Amino acid sequence: MNALADDDARAETGLSVDNRESALLVVDQLKVAAGPLIPNDATIKGVFVDVDRSTGSTCIMGREIALRLANEAVARTKALSSVWNEPARFGDANDLWGGGPIAAAAFSNASTAVTVGLHFAGDKLSCGASMRFGRVDVVHVSVAWCP
């Protein structure tokens, strides 16, 4: 079974040669309560995040995507190295993002979120000195679980 969260929000950040690493977008506060509820005794099998992303420049690259669970002090992070210019899926139905079991209750907690880090990967010669924008248009978070 899958539980899907979608908040239909859009996030955007600007980066430039002088502002390379400061982009961390909180792209989705999980709202699983709006979709099917995951029973507290369910076993979480995996989490995948579909991101509709775009940029007007090949100079904006993904740095990381992190699953920040409310009950864990350290985020579960995946490194990114692709240009931020097309939709992508991170994780899958059997992926716990490098950690141990995930408590079902984490997905009904408003503190659980997905964050995305971007960085400016060019120089003034190839990218110019002006601001370039990385956007996250839609995020779908799916949780695969079994009773």
How far apart are the first and last residues' alpha carbons, in Å?
A: 9 Å
Number of strands: 9
Number of helices: 1
Could you tell me the CATH topology label: Jelly Rolls
Q: What's the main sheet like?
A: 5 strands, antiparallel
Layout of helices and strands, plus pairs?
Elements: E1 2-5, E2 11-15, E3 23-29, E4 43-55, E5 60-68, E6 76-79, E7 88-91, E8 113-120, H1 124-127, E9 132-146
Antiparallel strand pairs: 1-9, 2-9, 3-8, 4-7, 4-9, 5-6, 5-8
Task: Describe this entry's structure for a reader.
- The chain has 147 residues and is mainly beta.
- The protein has 1 helix and 9 strands; from the N terminus they run ββββββββαβ.
- It has a single domain (2-146), classed as Sandwich (Jelly Rolls), CATH 2.60.120.
- Strands 1, 2, 4, 7 and 9 form a 5-stranded antiparallel β-sheet that branches. Strands 3-8-5-6 form a 4-stranded antiparallel β-sheet, with no helix packed on it.
- It is elongated, with a radius of gyration of 16 Å.
Structural features:
elongated; disordered N terminus; mainly beta; four-stranded antiparallel beta sheet; single chain; five-stranded antiparallel beta sheet; Jelly Rolls; 47% strand; 147 residues
Summarize this entry quickly.
The chain is an all-beta fold and about 150 residues long. It has 1 helix and 9 strands, in the order E-E-E-E-E-E-E-E-H-E.
